[in-house]
Specification:
The chain has 295 residues and is an alpha+beta fold. It has helices at residues 27-34, 53-62, 116-132, 200-220, 230-237, and strands at 43-47, 69-73, 79-80, 86-87, 94-101, 137-139, 143-148, 151-163, 166-174, 243-248, 254-262, 268-271, 277-280, 284-290. It has a seven-stranded mixed beta sheet with strand order 1-2-5-9-8-7-6, with helices on both faces. It has a five-stranded antiparallel beta sheet with strand order 13-12-11-10-14. A two-stranded antiparallel sheet has the order 3-4. The termini are far apart. It comes from Streptomyces melanosporofaciens.
Length: 295
């Protein structure tokens, strides 16, 4: 199958308007609004379906695709989350896209590239809060949360992959997913969180503009998370901090403690028994209970 751009017209393809509550993205208008001279976004493409936008864009990155390429899919048939977990959702029920960045060109040292998925989280959470009118939060390291019926629910995930001197960041955001479509009971969507809008065009435009703004500032300070304000903003929006958590680490190991900080390397710092502070650089985090913060 040859992927093609959506245009926002009902006559562009068979079956695309089978769900009138989920119209296609208007690729032409989005491209016009996002791809500007001197801006970060240099290419913008929407495809009807693909296995994984990250896989596709990693391949393009290795072939020399420019920084600022954006690939969006109306449907992913083999979407991937962290630890190679599957990510599934009905066509046009969310935003499924990947972006290509080349931070080395801006002089950002490789040891700071681990902040990029956290940067994408901060940028996306802020943009979606403003545009959709819902409170969003970050779960370390790469999840976005909303509140549905009084419970925290994951509605978005971020996956970053290195491709030579480039980084590809993929995002999956549940927008109009209904309760009977949830892949797991702990999932959520903007619609289920009573968003004031589930129009994907302005949501995607806001997210990409916010990422561009944060990325530009981060690069201006050569990836320094403190000087760019990224570390502070991530901590302010992170629902994991101040919580008792269980860190499920590679190799089957576990650590339980209070999440007290995100350090300069983007690692989650746990205060474990005996007052030992231990940084966690990778793993699954399970929120156990809240810990009241001191005033």
């Amino acid at each position: 199958m040859t992927p093609s751009d959506t245009s926002g017209s009902p006559g562009d393809g068979p079956g695309r308007w089978s769900d009138l509550e989920r119209p296609p993205l208007n690729a032409t208008a989005l491209r016009r609004g996002l791809v500007r001279p001197g801006g970060l976004w240099t290419e913008f493409e929407v495809v009807q379906a693909t296995g994984s936008t990250n896989t596709d864009l990693v391949t393009r990155a290795r072939a020399g695709a420019p920084e600022g390429a954006v690939l969006v899919a109306e449907e992913q048939t083999a979407g991937r989350g962290r630890l190679d977990r599957a990510w599934t959702a009905p066509a046009r029920s969310g935003l499924f896209f990947s972006i290509l960045l080349r931070p080395a060109d801006a002089g950002v040292p490789t040891e700071r590239w681990g902040w990029l998925p956290l940067l994408a989280g901060v940028a996306s959470a802020g943009a979606l809060s403003r545009t959709a009118g819902v409170d969003t939060a970050l779960k370390w390291p790469n999840d976005l949360l909303v509140t549905v019926a009084g419970e925290e629910r994951k509605f978005g995930g971020i996956l970053a992959e290195r491709a030579g001197d480039a980084v590809v960041i993929g995002m999956g955001l549940n927008v109009s997913l209904r309760a009977d479509e949830l892949p797991v009971p702990t999932a959520g969507s903007l619609a289920l969180a009573d968003a004031i809008s589930t129009d994907r065009d302005p949501l995607l435009r806001a997210v990409l503009r916010s990422i561009a703004q944060w990325y530009g500032e981060w690069c201006r300070f050569e990836g320094d998370p403190g000087a760019s304000g990224l570390q502070e903003s991530y901590a302010a929006g992170c629902a994991t901090l101040g919580r008792q958590v269980r860190a499920e680490l590679p190799g089957g190991r576990e650590r339980v403690g209070e999440a007290v900080a995100v350090d300069g390397d983007g690692r989650l710092v746990l205060a474990t028994e005996g007052g030992v502070q231990e940084p966690v650089s990778a793993g699954d985090i399970v929120h156990l209970r809240s810990v009241p913060r001191e005033q």
